[in-house]
Design a protein that fits this description.
Length: 228
């Protein structure tokens, strides 16, 4: 009787292992399965997120078009309350026009006309972020028209300009050639050193971004919005 009782724990352990044991093939299959959260994105959902337009060549711009006159109407209805009737800015909202030749001044005005390097970037920003209270509510035609109007405010395109996926990438912005397309910052990547390391006292900076006019100066007179 005592020998039978002593076997019971061992028998229970074997039974427990048998219940919990899972073939290795099943375990391997389960590790590659998904957790079952969510559902695959539909083409319509992907299309809703795939809205970017490439600055250099306009890849990603949708069909549609808009001219300066229609852009003036949309601007008056959707944009003027923040950016002014002619892009001069209202309150703390940014200026969209003007600032020509000011980037090297003590108080530069980086507007669309004076600073931005690509016209397509203007379309892309308006399309994804404007109007400020209700972004993504403008049609492609309205965004094209607004882009044409703002470019015209900056005397970059004529009054009869029609913006579309073909014409917009061809617009050369006034400040395009003033951008550098290589990172001017020094390379600070260092491999970890565990043995035969360089003596830190012998290291010195041989390249720096200082003095290369990478950021505008702010030493000029304060604007009228600053408290006195």
């Amino acid at each position: 009787m005592s020998s039978l009782a002593s076997l019971r724990p061992a028998m229970f352990a074997v039974a427990l292992l048998a219940v919990n044991a899972v073939p290795a093939s099943v375990m391997a299959a389960e590790t590659h399965q998904r957790f079952g959260y969510g559902t695959p994105a539909t083409p319509e959902q992907i299309k809703g997120w795939d809205i970017d337009a490439r600055a250099e060549d306009g890849k990603g711009l949708p069909p549609g078009k808009g001219d300066v006159n229609h852009g003036a109407e949309v601007f008056a209805d959707q944009c003027a309350s923040c950016h002014g009737t002619f892009g001069e800015g209202e309150g703390r909202y940014p200026k969209l026009a003007g600032g020509n030749g000011s980037l090297t001044a003590d108080r530069p005005e980086p507007t669309v006309g004076s600073y931005w390097p690509f016209a397509v970037t203007l379309w892309d920003y308006i399309n994804r972020a404007m109007p400020f209270p209700t972004p993504r509510t403008l049609s492609a035609d309205d965004v094209y028209a607004l882009t044409a109007y703002i470019l015209n405010l900056n005397n970059i395109v004529p009054a009869d300009f029609v913006a579309d996926k073909e014409s917009l990438p061809k617009v050369k912005m006034p400040n395009h050639d003033s951008f550098t397309w290589q990172d001017p910052r020094p390379d600070t990547a260092m491999k970890p050193c565990m043995t035969k390391c360089v003596d830190p006292s012998t290291l010195k900076i041989v390249s720096t971004a200082e003095g290369k006019d990478l950021t505008p100066r702010t030493s000029g007179p304060l604007d009228t919005m600053q408290p006195k």
